[in-house]
Specification:
348 residues, mainly alpha, two-stranded antiparallel ribbon, 14 helices, 2 strands, 2% strand, elongated
Length: 348
């Protein structure tokens, strides 16, 4: 197990480097850099002025060189003009440009400065990720138990009326996108047009104080979409397990149906849904973009939209790194979980 984890960690690091390099290359294309120069400088800048602005700050270097500076494995380019003003990645870390450190990348804990929010990228991501973390935790607490219960009940007796009813509900919830169900919930439960003003149409106030009124609609919008998929996977797995030979043997021995489900079938039936549940974590982290925008909840997904729409290169890179780490870590946890759910699974 220890060797397996070490191998997977090595693969994770290599994959993270490849993915972040691709994102870094795409975000540092010249049109994006030109837009950044005009946004931070002057929209009427000439081509020569744009080139000079980018060159002073090291943006015109080769992509591998800039990526190495961003990682912190290569020294950062610095430029000090005749007036003593410093330009470059590391000059923001020192009042005196001549005293600025040479290495200031991700490995040194410096993720850069956001050009939109005018703050450190690491601080912004930490705050926004915490807000989305509460949303994700609440959604998982609602979605996972509900989906497992629906899937197990539907799969216990394949083809029954209960199975058909629950399967129809699951398919309907999965087929309804979040932006559709979110608008419907707002129109019914938060709009004065219908009259059921039970909840708030926005979740902005939940950033400071989470309440039942301001957090219910976004949680339900996300949970219902993911619940149907997990329920369908659980139902399919449960149906397959209930037809296994050892289940038939237990029935012939007179074991009660409840004990068969809880003690014999449930654990094996949860192996496939466990994978789906673990994959919901990266989906929740990046897939809440629509919901956070719809309900004006300024979390991680909302930050991703702001970074992309405002050409905030440093913030976009930071968000991408966090997303990659979450996805790879989730996959590692999922693989390790297989062994504990079913000891017959061996790692080669």
């Amino acid at each position: 197990m220890g060797l397996f984890i070490l191998r997977r960690l090595g693969v994770m690091i290599l994959t993270a480097l490849c993915l972040t390099y691709i994102v870094f290359t795409l975000t540092n294309l010249y049109p994006n850099l030109e837009k950044l120069a005009k946004t931070q400088g002057n929209f009427r800048m000439s081509d020569e002025a744009v080139t000079s602005w980018l060159d002073k700050r090291g943006y015109l270097q080769s992509t591998p060189k800039k990526y190495g500076e961003w990682l912190g494995v290569l020294p950062s380019k610095q430029f000090i003009d005749d007036e003593g003003k410093g330009y470059g990645r590391c000059t923001a870390l020192a009042d005196d440009p001549t005293q600025a450190p040479r290495f200031c990348g991700v490995l040194q804990g410096y993720w850069g400065q956001s050009t939109v929010f005018k703050d450190a990228v690491s601080k912004i991501i930490g705050i926004r990720l915490g807000l989305t973390g509460w949303l994700m935790l609440t959604v998982m607490c609602v979605m996972v138990p509900g989906a497992l219960i629906i899937g197990v009940l539907a799969g216990m007796r394949e083809g029954s009326k209960l199975d058909r009813t629950l399967s129809t509900i699951s398919i309907t919830s999965t087929a309804t996108p979040e932006y559709v169900s979110g608008v419907i919930f707002i129109a019914i439960f938060a709009s004065s047009a219908v009259g059921l003003k039970w909840f708030k149409g926005t979740a902005t106030s939940a950033m400071d104080d989470i309440t039942f009124a301001n957090f219910t609609l976004p949680v339900l919008t996300i949970a219902l979409y993911g619940m149907g998929y997990i329920a369908r996977m659980t139902r399919a797995s449960m149906t397959e397990v209930m037809t296994a030979q050892y289940i038939r043997t237990a029935r012939l021995k007179g074991v009660s149906f409840a004990n068969i489900v809880l003690k014999h079938a449930l654990r094996n039936a949860l192996i496939a849904p466990f994978t789906v549940i673990m994959l919901q974590i990266p989906w929740l982290l990046n897939g809440v973009v629509i919901v956070e925008t719809l309900f004006n909840y300024k979390g991680f997904g909302w930050t991703l939209v702001q970074a992309a729409s405002n050409n905030d290169i440093e913030l976009l890179l930071g968000v991408s790194v966090v997303s990659v780490i979450v996805v790879l870590t989730t996959q590692l946890i999922s693989d390790i979980g297989y062994v504990y759910l079913n000891p017959r699974i061996r790692i080669s």
